[in-house]
């Protein structure tokens, strides 16, 4: 692809210089500009093979001209860059027909890879709809690197019907992600129907999912539609899929394989058209080993895995999340409140075992109970209860491994109170530690499995088996040192 022309629009001279040098060394002809006007003139004259543009520039917003560009030159791939780094920025870029969205700061190696793919691949058609960004009504909040990866994955999934499996601890916002996939996707005009497997008696789950005919069982005095029928044309969110009984798993597998189901007590197959999004906080690979979850169903559901990080892994998002919850409280007639900088720092030192849900509950409680406009450090200290030292670190950042294990075990035992959890606690913890360990080492080895196996002290086949069983994604890249 060397020799092709790249149009580069960014008002930051340093970014233009760095990209110009890197792209020129790769053999491309680069035409840089710091304004939209010049970029638009180039595009209208038919110049350039690809456009790389920042969103906000002194003379306008790239999103405002992208529909004109796509109409005039639908074949021209556009790579959008932005330092705003919100969920809606990624979605807006996708809706405007961008080939790729790159949050700033970016990896030069990734830019080169994106440009190479864009020039080599067939151009994507531009979606015909747009959604105005409303910062105060953001469906997902956070600008951390962990959330950027999720935003980009979601943006790519919006115009597909691929089945998605969302994993993450309780309170991380799995249903919010499922709703975002629906509300900004191709099925947004259809219904969004959610069912929590853990909240329904096990012997009623099949009837809840697939409906039942009159007389199908004692108490079935009339025909009743199920969640699949209610979600027709839209999205069905299967929350806590790990709690689904085996009989229901078998029926669900048939739906995924054949696109049809029968009601409980019924004989006629019913065609269905729904997008399935599943979620769980449990380790499905462990349940498979225990014979509690079908392996074939797991692979049918786990087409696109999305892992939501616990809040302790995205601690930089605490200020944005807290501000969002305070705004929500204000919209519900609470007086305007802000958190002091010291209070926010303390909140970033807390490990949040209840994740985003715990943070939201705290902020809403602070907004309702305290009259001062500025919520002080002392108030937050009192509410977080500093006697519980185990949930604080000496500095902001991820929790140490001992704290993570203790927190995970505590939540597991709370979940099954007053009984004990099922057998396999040891393997559950081992699996929880293995995933970030293997992922991190693979990343440090730039995706090279041979080097990663050597560094871990594992046989290459053992490492490959663990990668497959955990569904670990391998991203090959040039490692940045610094």
UniProtKB/TrEMBL annotation:
<dbReference type="Pfam" id="PF02954">
    <property type="entry name" value="HTH_8"/>
</dbReference>
<dbReference type="GO" id="GO:0005737">
    <property type="term" value="C:cytoplasm"/>
</dbReference>
<keyword id="KW-0067">ATP-binding</keyword>
<dbReference type="InterPro" id="IPR010114">
    <property type="entry name" value="Transcript_reg_NtrC"/>
</dbReference>
<dbReference type="GO" id="GO:0005524">
    <property type="term" value="F:ATP binding"/>
</dbReference>
<keyword id="KW-0902">Two-component regulatory system</keyword>
<keyword id="KW-0238">DNA-binding</keyword>
<protein>
    <recommendedName>
        <fullName>DNA-binding transcriptional regulator NtrC</fullName>
    </recommendedName>
</protein>
<dbReference type="GO" id="GO:0000156">
    <property type="term" value="F:phosphorelay response regulator activity"/>
</dbReference>
<dbReference type="InterPro" id="IPR058031">
    <property type="entry name" value="AAA_lid_NorR"/>
</dbReference>
<dbReference type="InterPro" id="IPR002197">
    <property type="entry name" value="HTH_Fis"/>
</dbReference>
<dbReference type="InterPro" id="IPR025662">
    <property type="entry name" value="Sigma_54_int_dom_ATP-bd_1"/>
</dbReference>
<feature type="domain" description="Sigma-54 factor interaction">
    <location>
        <begin position="140"/>
        <end position="368"/>
    </location>
</feature>
<keyword id="KW-0597">Phosphoprotein</keyword>
<keyword id="KW-0805">Transcription regulation</keyword>
<dbReference type="InterPro" id="IPR002078">
    <property type="entry name" value="Sigma_54_int"/>
</dbReference>
<dbReference type="Pfam" id="PF00072">
    <property type="entry name" value="Response_reg"/>
</dbReference>
<keyword id="KW-0678">Repressor</keyword>
<dbReference type="GO" id="GO:0006355">
    <property type="term" value="P:regulation of DNA-templated transcription"/>
</dbReference>
<keyword id="KW-0010">Activator</keyword>
<comment type="function">
    <text>Member of the two-component regulatory system NtrB/NtrC, which controls expression of the nitrogen-regulated (ntr) genes in response to nitrogen limitation. Phosphorylated NtrC binds directly to DNA and stimulates the formation of open promoter-sigma54-RNA polymerase complexes.</text>
</comment>
<dbReference type="InterPro" id="IPR001789">
    <property type="entry name" value="Sig_transdc_resp-reg_receiver"/>
</dbReference>
<dbReference type="InterPro" id="IPR025944">
    <property type="entry name" value="Sigma_54_int_dom_CS"/>
</dbReference>
<dbReference type="GO" id="GO:0006808">
    <property type="term" value="P:regulation of nitrogen utilization"/>
</dbReference>
<keyword id="KW-0804">Transcription</keyword>
<dbReference type="InterPro" id="IPR011006">
    <property type="entry name" value="CheY-like_superfamily"/>
</dbReference>
<keyword id="KW-0963">Cytoplasm</keyword>
<dbReference type="InterPro" id="IPR009057">
    <property type="entry name" value="Homeodomain-like_sf"/>
</dbReference>
<feature type="modified residue" description="4-aspartylphosphate">
    <location>
        <position position="54"/>
    </location>
</feature>
<keyword id="KW-0547">Nucleotide-binding</keyword>
<dbReference type="InterPro" id="IPR025943">
    <property type="entry name" value="Sigma_54_int_dom_ATP-bd_2"/>
</dbReference>
<dbReference type="Pfam" id="PF00158">
    <property type="entry name" value="Sigma54_activat"/>
</dbReference>
<dbReference type="InterPro" id="IPR003593">
    <property type="entry name" value="AAA+_ATPase"/>
</dbReference>
<dbReference type="Pfam" id="PF25601">
    <property type="entry name" value="AAA_lid_14"/>
</dbReference>
<feature type="domain" description="Response regulatory">
    <location>
        <begin position="5"/>
        <end position="119"/>
    </location>
</feature>
<dbReference type="GO" id="GO:0043565">
    <property type="term" value="F:sequence-specific DNA binding"/>
</dbReference>
<dbReference type="InterPro" id="IPR027417">
    <property type="entry name" value="P-loop_NTPase"/>
</dbReference>
<keyword id="KW-0535">Nitrogen fixation</keyword>
